[in-house]
Amino acid sequence: MKRIIFIFLILLVPGGVFSSQPQKGQNSPEEKDRIFSQIAKAAIKVTSLESDFVQERHLSMLEDVLISRGRFYYKKQDRLRWELTKPVASGFAVSGKNAKRWDAKSGRTQTFEVYRVPFIKLFTDQVFAWATADFKQLKKNYKIKVLNNSPVDLKLVPIRSQEKKYLAHFRIAFTADASHVNTVEVHETGGDFTRIRFFNTIINTPLPNTLFD
Amino acid sequence: MPIFTLFAKIYIYFSPRRRILYIATMLGIVASIFVFASIDLQEDIRSMLPDDNSEAALDFSLLQQAPFTRKVIINLSCGEDTGSSELLEAVDRLAEAMGPPFFTNVVTGPSGPDIWELFFWLMEKQPNLATAQDRKKIQHELTAEGVQRKLEEMYARLLSPEGSALKGLFRSDPLALRRIGLEKIQFMNIIPNIRIEDNHFISTDGKNALIIADTPVKITETGQARQLLSYFQKLVAAAVPRDIEISLISGHRYTLANTDTIQRDVIIILACSLLAMLTIFLLCLRTWGGLYVYLVPVSVFCIAAAGVSLIYETVSVVTIGFGAVLLGISVDFALHVYFAIRHKSSNPSRTIADVSRPLLFCGMTTLGAFSVLLFSSLPSQRQLAIFSIIGIGASMILSLITLPHLVGAKSKAPIPAKSAGGKRFKLASRWTVGAWLALLVICAWQGAKLNFDGDLRSINLVPEEIQAAEVKLRQTWGNFRGNAVIFTEGLDLQSALETNERLFDYLSPKIPAGKMVSLAPILPSLDTQHLNRRHWNEFWSEKKELTLRLLVQEGKVFGFSARAFEPFFKRLAQPSPPITAQNLRESGLAEIVDALIVNTDDKVKVLTLVPDVPEVAGLMDRRDKTLAGVRFVSQNRFSQIISRAIGQDFREFIAKASVVVCLLLGLLFRDIKKVLLALVPVVSGLLFVFGVMGGLGMGFNLFNVVAAILIIGLGVDYGILVVCKISEGSNLATEKAVFVSGLTTLAGFGALVMARHPALHSIGVTVLLGIAAAVPSALFVIPALYQKKYE
Q1: Which residues of chain B does A162 touch, with a Cβ-Cβ cutoff of 8 Å?
Q2: Nearest-CA residue of chain B relative to A165?
Q3: B323, B451: one domain
Q4: What is the pTM (predicted TM-score) of this model?
Q5: How far is B161 from chain A, CA to nearest CA, in Å?
Q6: Do B92 and B235 belong to one domain?
Q7: I need a labelling partner for B284 at 20 to 30 A (CA). Which of A173, A195, B428, B585 fits?
Q8: Contact flag B162-A61 (C-beta cutoff 8 Å)
Q9: Mean pLDDT, rounded, of chain A
């Protein structure tokens, strides 16, 4: 699960769109390092980020594709907000050790310490870790293939057997100017997959802390 | 009486053979010094607890089986600037370095493969765990509205980032039956503020990590305990960055702190008391003969310590600390002999015969008083009694056999009669008696407030550093080491588990959620599991069609496919093997299972942890007969038991010592009035101690009991000597001897008051108070009362 969540964090990292035609020489170690270094450099500059998203969930247990829309916010060092607007207004926000989740339909808002909800804890940990674009650590856990280097399109295949049980691979595509993530795809072993597309992304805009409290 | 002339005859016998006597004495003393030098000093809390079959002994042995009692607990704490990954790396490095011979079974997190495997394991075991109440809840929710609510929640969560991860779970458990296992496993949370991160024990704030280890080093083995701590410090220096703070909590640290403190105390106390005595001798004796008097207590100390070490394998450091007291007592006999001989040096053998009578009675009464402690159930009190008896015996022998030759032979000028005391000690008798009675009344009034303190922590030294570490551990992780423990015992595990279930059924409705740790919900007996399984299968045979219909019908609304929940029905059809202690261990809960199931020689004990509060103790007191074999043990209750035992021991010992002393006094004086007069210092000393301690709210601990016996022994000595002097008109410089011996005794005890160790300090305070009242009452009150009675 940790690995599945991992994908969502990538959106902090600058990049490009998917490309089905890998470029020549893109998988050489030197080239990879150059791309990772480029992403890391861009990541350092990101202090805040907000973006609309559309999430498509292709699940065998559902007759139709499950589509949801929402907005994502991130603020350095430890604040994020994942807000769904359709079909159900719901989401969660994290500010340091504290978090809250809400569901407009039931009208319930729950505040809690992040560690008490493992999913959110894992999600936020990964998001915050990705803020530093630690490719050294990533390479320990994933075999990273550069599908395209401009715009950057990465395919990450899990190395650890535990993770392989649930996750086939995921893809992260960055925008052409490598300023942020464009699309994330999570492919599960059973064939189900999730695609999240980000748009209207604004980087380094002032975000009030109240957004995360 | 022949016994009293015996010492005169011995004196006459050795007079021409003094060299032989001196050599024999020297050899004895030198041999005892050698034995003393090789003594293995130990600090063992068990010596302060009953070693019989009493309630306290049984409770203590059970408390030792409580989780974490024998564990080494290490807390790693990182500052604001250190990340949790660095903390966990340090934990792993340190844990990896911790190995034999000092550490075994080093644990940094759950032993299981994965927390999610435990989660699914729990789901698999639902049929064994679901009680009638659980089934009732499920049935209540098996309606169109209930199922719709569940599916709606599920749908909403599928939209969230966690949805992908939870998808499989939702398919196999759309009705959220997983809560059955999750609710039950919460009762296994031994450490309240713990969470698991990357398979490590982490505090809720993420700033602390825990390592729990076993060690083969016994808590009482001070040498190895020192090596263990030093080894650990080296590991920390090598494996842990400086910005991570480490604290180790184990009994070894307490033992070492106490042993080191007592050893330091003993050196300081002995040095101070010897110095104080030397000063007193220089001021009051001022002769070469006085030097030999001075050497008597020093020799007696070595002889007593050597004697104890020949009887016991190990000698408590408290016993040796008590040596200062012995110095103060043993010098008394030597002083009386010295003053008597110096005062009447014309016929030393006659003087010895005269002085030996009151001294022998003094010695016998003191020995008699201490002998009652030989029947104590506390090993430490018995050892102190042996130490004192040997010391007093040695002091009498040295004072009545060897010392007269040393003092008499060198004596040139008798001390003038006026310097022996006499007039200057006399006060107006009416005022003296009046003031004395008033003091006794006040002390008796205040003494009624005296409390017996059974808390062993109050007689053990807890250095600030360890105290702070304990507080931090409690604040960070919760008071997981301070719970009360309830033991359910059975001939085998199943019978113990059955009783454990009854206990859980009794307590769980009355104790707030999260405050009780029990195996009962997650490991019921096999019979209960069999019954639960049967009812579960019957329940789902009956409800399967309804459930399927509701899921398909309500699922359509949210777009779930008709086969979305097939895994759920497959799971219900699968057999669920029973839960055993072994597979519970394998599921990742080995540490907790092993902490809560204790196998002894022929029985199995299952432990339940509850808050150590009076409300829970009251619940256990009111339990019915079906829980008769269950035993409730807690630190608080243990302290109460020890307090009661101390109170009972105290009354018993005081009564026995008083009877022994009165019998001996009766034998000596054959006059009830003189007996009563001789008891004046004893009564004064004891009442003064009770009054001051009661008035100041000081607790009376087990070492104060020893000190009270000492006051009886010493007080009656002063009484005997003064009554003999007054009634028989003996010219043995008694008042001065009593005065100086009182000063030397105070010097010994005064030094004990300076001790940092609470046990030694409490002995010092008690006896200091007692002797401070006994000496003046012997010197002033007895003559005043005697005057009034016999005028």
Answers
A1: 114
A2: B165
A3: yes
A4: 0.72
A5: 7
A6: yes
A7: B428
A8: no
A9: 78
- Please tell me the distance in Å from A101's CA to the nearest CA on chain B: 11
Three-class HEC string of B748-760: HHHHHHCCCCHHH
Identify the three-state secondary structure at position B731. coil
Residue B151 counted as domain residue: no
A63: which chain B residues are within 8 Å (Cβ-Cβ)? Answer: 559-561
In tens, the pLDDT along B8-18 reads 888 888 888 88
Summarize pLDDT for B83-136 with one digit per residue, the tens.
Answer: 777 888 899 999 999 988 899 889 888 766 566 778 888 889 999 999 999 999
CATH of the domain at B102: 3.30.70.1440
| HEC readout, B108-133 | CCCCCCCHHHHHHHHHHCHHHHCCHH
Please tell me if residue A84 touches chain B, with a CB cutoff of 8 Å: yes
Average pLDDT over residues B548-576: 91
Distances (CA, A) of B539 to B92, B328, B699: 47, 81, 61
Q: Is the model's pLDDT at A106 over the cut of 70? A: yes
Please check whether residues B34 and B93 belong to one and the same domain: no
CATH code of the domain in which B396 resides:
1.20.1640.10
Which residues on chain B are in Cβ contact (under 8 Å) with A103? Answer: 156
Interface of B with A (CB under 8 A): 114, 116, 152, 155-156, 158-167, 170-171, 195, 197, 202, 204-206, 559-561, 564
Q: How many domains does chain B have?
A: 2
For residue B551, being part of any structural domain is answered with: no
Across the interface, which of A88, A103, A119 has its CB nearest the CB of B162?
A119
Pick left, alpha or beta for residue B755 (phi over 0 → left; psi -120 to 50 → alpha; otherwise beta): beta
What is d(CA B256, CA B452) in angstroms, rounded to the nearest whole number? 27
* Number of Cβ atoms within 10 Å of the Cβ of B117: 13
Residue B422 confidence (pLDDT): 43
* Helices vs. strands in chain B: H and E counts, helices first: 33, 14
Query: CB distance A66–B158 less than 8 Å?
Result: yes
- State how far the Cα of B4 lies from the Cα of A196, in Å rounded to an integer: 108
Are both B223 and B317 inside the same structural domain? no
Q: Which amino acid is at B56?
A: A
CA distance B277 to B279: 5
Indicate if B336 and B383 belong to the same structural domain: yes
Strands B699-700 and B451-452 come out as parallel
Does some domain include residue B655?
yes
Cβ burial of A76 (10 Å; 0-12, 13-18, 19+) is middle
Task: Verify whether the Cβ–Cβ distance A1 to B116 is below 8 Å.
Answer: yes
Q: Which residues of B touch A100 (CB under 8 A)?
A: none
Give the distance from residue A157's alpha carbon to the nearest chain B alpha carbon, in angstroms: 17
Residue located via tokens 């410089």: B733
> Rounded CA gap, B62 and B64, in Å?
5
What is the number of other CB atoms lying within 10 angstroms of the CB of residue A167? 25
The whole-number average pLDDT for the span B652-673 is 84
CB atoms within 10 A of CB B471: 10
Give yes or no: residues B213 and B279 share one domain: no
Nearest to B195 by CA among A95, A113, A129: A113
Q: What is the Cα–Cα distance from B704 to A113, expressed in whole angstroms? A: 51
- What is the ipTM score, two decimals? 0.78
> B82: domain range?
72-112+199-249
Condensed to tens digits (0 to 9), the pLDDT of residues A11-68 reads 333 333 333 344 444 467 888 888 888 888 888 888 888 999 999 999 989 998 999 9
List the domains of chain A with CATH numbers. Answer: 2-76+123-208 (2.50.20.10)
Report the residue from B114, B116, B156 with minimal CB separation from A90: B156
Residue B145 lies in a domain: no
d(CA B725, CA B669): 12
Per residue in B718-739, pLDDT tens?
888 888 877 766 555 667 777 7
* Whether residue B394 is found in the same domain as residue B284: yes
